[in-house]
Amino acid sequence: MEERKDLAENKEAEEVRQLTDEPEGAKEQVMQTEAAESAEESSEPEKIFCVKCGAEVAPGNAFCPKCGQKVGEKIAEEKGEKSLLSSINSTGADGKSKVPIIAGIAGAIVALIVIIFVVRGPQPKDVTLNKKDISVKAGETVVLSYTINPSDTKNKDVTWSSSNESIAKVSDGTVTGVNEGDCSVTVTTKNGKTDTCQITVLPAGPDLQAIYNDYCSSSFATLATDGSYLNIDTNPSDKDDYNDYEAYVAVTNINAALGLPDSVINRMNQTRSMDGIQTYTTDDLEISWTYHPNRGLEVSYTLK
User: Fold this and answer.
1) What does DSSP assign to residue 100?
2) Are 186 and 196 in contact, with CB atoms under 8 Å apart?
3) Alpha-carbon Rg of the chain, whole angstroms?
4) Do residues 171 and 216 both lie within one domain?
5) Is residue 215 domain-shared with residue 296, that is, in the same domain?
6) What residues form DSSP beta bridges with 285?
7) Cα(236)–Cα(230) distance, rounded to whole angstroms?
8) CATH number at residue 178
9) 27: closest CA among 16, 35, 15, 39?
10) Mean pLDDT, consecutive 10-residue segments, the chain of 304 residues?
């Protein structure tokens, strides 16, 4: 009887041991589950703040409960995007909103722009030339001037350009005719404002210096130092009833070289002292003459 009792007690103890002893893998699984549950309980959701009123918005809410402003951070993350709004809503390591930082940067930028504007002053709104179109003979010059609006613009520097430098050149507003034709001259401010003048270059007038060299002598002819006029005197000594034949031939040759019609020399021959000053005009020249028996025929060729 006592032996049977011992066997029963041993069997019961074995069953208790089997129930209390768990496999090693099961223990590890239980530990991992408990650790995950503990981490889940300790983690706190990321704080989100409204960019409009600064109120805290619960995770998952698309709109601020205080002002109704749409929340960008969570929406942007759901779409896999990063927006400016989400950047503003994000917080720093200390949990504070980045809105004041961004506002400070924006204020600094505005201040910098104001400083630059004050230092540089007002910029040109437009530039206006004193002429819209001009004519100039080849070899001659004409000066253009400009006005910048507003008048208190600090930087009034400009550049000049010609659309065709084989017709006209420009330097600091001085236009020089080169060859017959049409072109334009443009003035441009530093910030790109422009105005344009149309240029017409006319053929150069007669070269009186060359004519003097070909047909004249200092004994009866006078040439202006700038070549603007040529005078011929057929009686330079004012002798009574005297006519310098060489001077008279020079007048005839000059008229022909200038392309004057034969009627001009004919009028000169028929001029009397009582007729006074006679004239003939071309596009480039004004010819005038007088006659007196004691002074002879005096002719003047003047460039316009």
Assistant:
1) H
2) yes
3) 52
4) no
5) yes
6) 303
7) 14
8) 2.60.40.1080
9) 35
10) 55 55 52 56 65 77 78 49 49 56 73 64 89 93 95 89 97 95 96 96 90 96 94 92 92 96 95 95 94 94 92
Please provide the size of the chain in residues: 304
**Residue 154 pLDDT:** 83
Residues 228 and 292 in one domain: yes
Domain for residue 272, yes or no? Answer: yes
* Cβ-based neighbours of 282, under 8 Å, separated by 6 or more: 258, 260
76 in helix, strand or coil? helix
192: left (phi over 0), alpha (psi -120 to 50) or beta: left
Among residues 171, 202, 233, the one where a domain terminates is 202
Same domain for 131 and 188: yes
How far is the C-alpha of 231 from the C-alpha of 45, rounded, in Å? 107
Last residue of a domain, one of 80, 112, 144: 112
Give the pLDDT score at 256: 96
Beta bridge pairs of residue 138: 177
Single pTM value for the model: 0.45
